[in-house]
Amino acid sequence: MGTLLEIDRLSVEFATAKGDLQAIEDVSFSICAGEVVCLVGESGSGKSVTSKAILRLIDDENGSITAGSITLDGIEITGLTQDTLRSLRGKRMAMVFQEPMAAFDPVFTIGSQIVETIRRHTRQCTANQAWRQAVELLRRVGIPEPELRMKQYPNELSGGMLQRAMIAMALSCDPELLIADEPTTALDVTIQAQILQLLQDLKTEYRMSILLITHDMGVAAQIADRIVVMYAGKVVEQAATKELFAQPRHPYTQGLLQSITTMESDRSRRLYAIPGSIPGLSEMPTGCRFHPRCPYATDLCVREAPPLQDREGRQTACWHVEQVLADKGKRLVNRVQGAAAEASAAVTAITATATTSAYATAVAAASAAVREPVPPQLDTVPLFELRQVTKHYPYGRSLFSRQKKAIHAVDDVSFSIRKGETFGLVGESGSGKSTLGRVLLHLERPTSGAVLFEGQDLAALSGAQLREQRKQMQMIFQNPYGSVDPRWKIGDIIGEPLSIHTSLSAAERKEHVHELLQLVGLSSAAYDRYPHEFSGGQRQRIGIARAIALQPKFVLADEAVSALDVSVQAQIIHLLEDLRRRLDVTFLFIGHGLNVVRYVSDRIGVMYLGKLVEIAPSETLFRHPAHHYTKALIASVPIPDPAHRQELAVIQGEIPSPASPPSGCRFRTRCPAATARCAEEPPQFREVGEGHFVACHDPVF
To answer: What does the similarity note say (predicted)?
Structure first.
C-alpha cells in the first residue's frame, strides 16, 4: 500500500494573550491507503490539534504551522491558499467531529446540508441527483427511513443517528482520508459498537484511510492497524497495534494500558493510575516531558529530551527502553508464578479432602486462587426505597382534544439502595437513568409512587424539612465545568453549601474548604483560582469536594467519569472509593461505561425505555446476565486486546420513542428472542437467583 498522508516534523503554535504557545512539536507519522491509524493520549496531548492541522482548521483558531510539512498524496498542504483547501476538504479529506450537533446548522434540515456538500464538490450534479445520493448515503450508514430523516432537523435525531448522519455527510464526496475525532466518546456502548462497525465496513468498501482520535484504548485495540501515542504535544511511541499492546516500550504507553478498566479487572485491587497530570502549554518541563510522572526518570531525562528512534520497525522516544522491557518481563514471570502457586495449593487442598465441609472450604480457596470474586457483605437496611415510581412529562395538550399525551421517562420502578453500598445504573441514552436520579433526589416530583429516604416519604415533607434533608443528598455532575459559575473562585464554589446550610464564620468556612481540597487531592493554592485554570480531572475533584462539603449520607454520581481519560478515570474512581470508606457515603453511580460501573458497584440495575429490566450483584450480572438487553449491552463493549478482535455485537435498531413505547415487553422490537407473548404481556419483575431479579418471559439462562 502506498503512503496517502505524510506528516513530517510538524510544529504548531497558537497566539494567546500570554504570547505564542507551542501546542505540538516535531510530530511525524504517516498513513497508508486503506489503513486505520489511531492517535491516543490524554486530553491536552495534542491529538485534536494534529488532526485540525491536517485540514488547516487551526487557521481559524489563531493557530499556525511553524515548522514541518503535511503531504496528502503528493500535495503539500501547509502552503495552500484557503480557496484551494476548500476544494480538498470534503472531496479528498473529511472530518467527523466528537459533537455532531455542533457540526450541523440547527436551522437547516439534515438533507439540505448533505445536498449542499455534494453539490459544492460535484459541479455537474443536479439537485435531484444530489438528493437521491444523500438518501442512499443515509441508508448506507444504517439510518432507517432515510427519506423521512432527510426532512428532519438536527435536534429531531438521536445522538447515534446524528453521528451517522455526520459520517454520511463526510462520505458524500468519496474522500480518501476520513479523520474521526473522538466519534464515540459521548455515545452509549451499543451506539458506539454500531459506529465502529460502520467505520470498519466503510474502510473495506471504499478502501478509505482513517485517522481515528480516541482516548479509549479498547476502541483502538479493535479497529486500528497502527497506534501513535502522543504526550504533551510530542509523539512518544508508535507501532503496529498488536505489538504495542503486547510489548509497550514507553513508560507512558505502559501506564495508559495499565489504567484500562476491563471486564476482568479485579475489584478487590486498586486500579492503576498514572500519578500527576499532563502539563499545560505554558509549563512544559525540560528534557523528557513525561519525566515528572515517570517511575524510570533519571537526571538524563530531566536534562535532555530523548529522540524518537526507530527500533525493530517501531518508534519510541525514551532513554530507558531496555529497562522498561526488562521490568515488564519480571512482572509477568512473578504474576504467572504466583498464580501457579495458588492454583497448585488449591488443587492439593481439593484432592486431599474427605468430608463435605472440608471440600466446600477447599473449593472456596480454589475460587480465590483463580480470582473468582465473593460478593461483599452489605448492610441490608435501605437508605433509599423507590416504590412504583413513575415520571411522565405531558405534552401536546389542546382545548379540542381530551386525549393526554406524555413522555414515559420512568415507569413503575421499584428498588432499594442499601446503606454503604454503591448501586450502579446502566442503560442507553433515553432509558430514564438521569430522570430517575433527579426524582430520587426530589429535584423533580414523581408523577406517581413514593421515594423514601431513611423510611421517610420525601413528598410528605414541607419545604423547610426538604431543604434540611438535602444536606444529606448531593450530586456529582458529568460536566464539572458546566455545573459551576466560571466567574467564581474555587473557594467560593466549594464553600457555597457551607454558607447556605451552616452557621460557620468566614474564617471557619475557609479552613473547612482547605481541608476539603486536601481531601480530594488538590493544593490549598486552588482556593483563589478559577475553574478554567484546571484540567477536566481537577475540575471533577472540585465538584466532588463541593458534593461532600456537608458530609452527606448519599451522593448521586451522574456520568461522573465518562468524559475523562482512562488514567484520570482511575484517579477519580480511587477518590470516590476512599471517600466512601472514610465518610461512610452511599453512592448511586450512573454511567454508560460498563467496565467502570462493574468495577465500582456492589449491585447494578439495568434500565430500558423507562423500565427496570434487571438487578443483580455486580459480578453476577456480568458473568450471568438474565435479560437479553443486558447480554447485548455487555457484548457491545470493545475488548482492549487486539489479539481477540471480533465483529462487535450490535443491537439492531434505535431505542423507541418514550412517547409511544411498544406494548408488552418494551425491548421486544430489538430482541432476537422475542415471541408473540412478548408483544401482548408485559413481563413481571421476578427473582431468578439470590438477589438477582429480571423482567423477561424467557431469561437468557
So the answer is: Belongs to the ABC transporter superfamily.
Nearest-angstrom CA–CA distance, 198 and 207: 13
Lowest mean pLDDT among 75-79, 200-204, 396-400, 536-540: 396-400
Which pTM was predicted? 0.83
Dist. CA 497–CA 547, nearest whole Å: 9
> What's the mean pLDDT when you consider all of the chain?
86
Pairing of strands 473-476, 554-558: parallel
pLDDT at 607 over 60: yes
Going 516 to 522 to 528 to 531, the CA torsion angle's sign is: negative
Q: Give CA separation, 603 vs 377, 477, 589, 618, in Å.
A: 12, 21, 10, 5
Please tell me whether residues 6 and 82 are part of one structural domain: yes
Lowest mean pLDDT of 68-72, 118-122, 365-369, 547-551, name the range.
365-369
Q: Is residue 607 part of a domain?
A: yes
Q: What is the DSSP letter of 60?
A: G
Q: Report whether 666 contacts 697 (CB < 8 A).
A: no
Check: CB of residue 538 under 8 Å from CB of residue 509: no
pLDDT band, very low/low/confident/very high, at 368 (cuts 50, 70, 90):
very low
Q: At residue 497, what is the residue type?
A: P
Contact 46, 24 (CB under 8 A): yes
Question: Which residue, among 524, 440, 457, 454, has the nearest Cα to 490 in the 3D structure?
Answer: 524
Residues 182 and 37 placed together within one structural domain of the fold: yes
Shared domain check, 144 and 10: no
The values of phi and psi at residue 537, to 5°, are -65, -40
- What the block records as the C-alpha cell of 280 is 499545560
Distance CA 85, CA 406 (A): 49
Regarding whether 153 and 43 lie in a shared domain, the answer is no
Is residue 34 domain-resident?
yes
Nearest to 91 by CA among 121, 125, 134: 121
- CA angle, corner 269, sides to 264 and 273, nearest 5? 90
Domain count, the chain: 3
In the DSSP assignment, the letter for residue 550 is T
Q: Answer yes or no: do 42 and 129 share one domain.
A: no
d(CA 584, CA 576): 11
Q: Give residue-wise pLDDT tens across range 489-546.
A: 999 999 999 998 899 999 999 999 999 998 888 888 899 999 888 877 788 889 999 9
Q: Are residues 567 and 453 in the same domain?
A: yes
pLDDT at 367 over 50: no
Report the distance separating Cα 112 and Cα 150, nearest Å: 7
Q: Which residues pair with 181 in a beta bridge?
A: 213
What is the DSSP-derived secondary structure letter of residue 130? H
Domain final residue pick, 174, 193, 209: 174
Q: Count CA within 13 A, CB hemisphere, residue 420.
A: 9
Q: Same domain, yes or no, for 138 and 227?
A: no
The domain of 189 spans 1-92+175-262+272-319
User: What digits encode the pLDDT tens for the residues 85-143?
Assistant: 888 888 899 998 877 777 789 999 999 999 998 888 777 788 999 999 999 988 888 78
The CA distance from 386 to 528, in Å, is 41
465 Rama class: left (phi>0) / alpha (psi -120 to 50) / beta: alpha
